[in-house]
Automatic annotation (TrEMBL):
Keywords: Cell membrane, Glycosyltransferase, Membrane, Transferase, Transmembrane, Transmembrane helix
Organism: Lentzea roselyniae
Protein name, as recorded: Mannosyltransferase
Main location: membrane
Lineage: superkingdom: Bacteria
Parts of the chain that traverse the membrane: 83-105, 150-168, 174-192, 199-219, 263-283, 290-308, 328-349, 361-381
Keyword Nuclease in annotation: no
């Protein structure tokens, strides 16, 4: 496999170019790009300037108008995008998202190179190009690009911030991410687990700054978001739809109704928390920064009320860690197959409606594909790290 990779790396720039060319060909005319989530950001963000950010929805279907679901600070960040013509906004966002995909891959590989006491040289740079070409076609990336979602920009930025050696940069970066979409708040657990208390404090400060800026621009919208709309998962979308790959989504499809925060969900969260604790502890003891970050992020994906399949971009650095760090190809291949296939699209097409939770049991079982593999991965991390440490000692 090393020989095969070595030959492939020689053509990495060409492979990336071909991958991007094929992707551009599949997209077709930019005027026909849907990018429905970007259109929500682009069209609704300016309403923050008139205190109507959460009063106006963008029609999508007759039964599912799309609201702006992020904090007011996010609307402020999107204002420059809203100033662009719609065609230009779509092109800029596609290019920015693909660049962030490369940055996400590069950040993970730099950590792996450092863990292996190797310089980030031409070989690792070519690996970044090669894996970017491959990752472009995995389901979380494709859905993010199709919808024009913020995921790639947010994950790449938060990842770079979390692993920064400078406490203020790490904390403020995460704090800004929380102010954009809340979910990056799980990263604070990583700071606490690694005793980076200054970074955790900077995260709180950065988040507070985003909230203050939101109140400065629109106090009514900020008050409504933080004290009325916060936690309303059903406002974000259909909890039981197959595209929601959180524990709550999978459990709801299994039980046939939204389990909310009842005992099945609490039990699943407790199991996830225990697995995450052992995984993070093992990663910290092994000095494996990437493994610790991934364990925390997967915990966040599992326990969030809504984790659309395109939120699972953390699978990309996970596959890289499994391939170059833990060297567990079976688990890496499992994730590549699951995210490289159209299983989520298949499940969505079997739904009579995105709002109808009951499913035939085979489909409900298949709808566990991301969370089940996520739990399995968390359970496997301590053992993989122990095997890796024994291999290092043997060498």
């Amino acid at each position: 496999m090393r020989a095969a990779e070595s030959r492939a790396l020689r053509f990495a720039p060409l492979v990336l170019g071909l991958s991007l060319a094929v992707y551009a060909w599949t997209l077709g005319n930019p005027a026909n790009w849907g990018m429905i989530d970007l259109k929500v950001y682009w069209s609704l963000a300016p309403n923050v300037l008139s205190d109507q950010l959460y009063d106006v929805n963008m029609p999508f279907t007759a039964d599912f108008p799309l609201p702006f679901t992020y904090p007011p600070f996010a609307a402020m960040v999107f204002l420059p995008v809203s100033a662009l013509p719609w065609l230009a906004a779509r092109i800029v966002w596609q290019v920015l998202s693909v660049l962030c995909l490369w940055w996400l891959v590069r950040t993970a590989l730099k950590l792996l190179a450092a863990k292996a006491d190797q310089p980030y040289d031409v070989t690792w740079s070519r690996r970044a190009l090669l894996w970017t070409a491959v990752a472009l076609w995995c389901e979380p990336v494709r859905k993010t690009l199709d919808f024009g979602q913020i995921n790639l920009v947010l994950v790449a930025g938060v990842f770079a911030a979390v692993v920064s050696a400078r406490q203020a940069v790490a904390g403020l970066g995460v704090g800004a991410g929380i102010g954009m979409k809340l979910t990056p708040g799980i990263s604070v657990l990583y700071f606490l687990a690694t005793r980076r208390f200054a970074a955790a404090a900077w995260s709180a400060a950065g988040f507070a700054i985003t909230v203050a800026l939101g109140f400065l621009v629109s106090a009514p919208d900020s008050w409504r978001y933080w004290f009325e709309l916060l936690g309303a998962a059903d406002r974000v979308g259909p909890v039981g739809s197959a595209i929601n790959q959180s524990l709550r989504g999978a459990l709801s499809r299994s039980f046939g109704y939204d389990v909310e925060m009842s005992w099945p969900w609490l039990l699943a969260v407790a199991v996830s928390a225990a697995l995450t604790w052992f995984a993070v502890r093992a990663a910290v003891r092994a000095g494996d920064q990437l493994a610790a970050v991934l364990a925390v992020q997967f915990f966040g994906l599992l326990i969030s009320p809504i984790s659309w399949s395109h939120h699972w971009l953390w699978v990309i650095p996970l596959v890289l860690w499994l391939a170059y760090g833990a060297r567990h190809l079976a688990l890496a291949v499992a994730w590549v197959v699951v995210t490289g296939s159209d299983v989520i699209t298949f499940l969505i097409n079997q739904q009579p409606s995105i709002w109808d939770i009951p499913r035939p049991w085979p489909l409900a079982a298949l709808g566990w594909v991301y969370p089940a593999l996520g739990l399995l991965t968390l359970a496997a991390v301590p053992r993989l790290l122990r095997v890796g440490r024994r291999a290092e000692v043997a060498l």
